[in-house]
Amino acid sequence: MSEDQKYSDEDLEAGRLMFCRPWDFLTSVTDMANLPEAAGAEIAFAGRSNVGKSSLINALTGRKDLARTSATPGRTQMLNFFIAPETPLTIVDMPGYGYAQAPKELVEAWTKLVFSYLRGRPNLRRVILLIDSRHGIKKNDLEAMELLDKAAVVYQVVLTKSDKIKPPQLVRLIEETQAILRKRVAAHPEILATSSEKNRGVDELRAELFLLATQ
Predict the structure, then answer these.
(1) 98: left (phi over 0), alpha (psi -120 to 50) or beta
(2) Do residues 70 and 95 lie in contact, with contact meaning Cβ atoms separated by under 8 Å?
(3) Which of 22, 31, 96, 101 gets the most CB atoms within 10 Å of its CB?
């Protein structure tokens, strides 16, 4: 493994194989009482509406329509669970935040559901917090970090749409983001940059998820 390669070839291949399996939708949950049995490792994906969460999940699993994409912010209003046969990992698609048009009562209900899940799920290994490379960390991202810090859940920032900005901008964004994360109690220090459209960083994220699921 070279100095600039964070993951070994074996980890990259293991991640590829784990996501080669036929991933499928398991269930959607709007109430903690309906959560599926806690088995294996769970990794939850969170981020602002339109951050590219569904597109990244689809890119990871090789399924174009596994997680529904929508031009309407806030469409994902439930916890959506995805599994694959003989795979020690469950992916959880969390409700997007930052949707201005949603009624306040609905936003509060979603926030309560998410916080209850974060605090009460024993097999939740990490939250992948998606940040749009074009915009960086915004106020509602910081609010999400506060929620995760309060729930004492480790979260890792993954940049989406990294192909939409120039390489020097991306380097600067990563440095700025690292500076913010150093002040957060539950933040994982490593940042991954991805592009669902160009398939950048997807192999590395698969390897990271494989390691989380099997360690």
Answers:
(1) left
(2) no
(3) 96
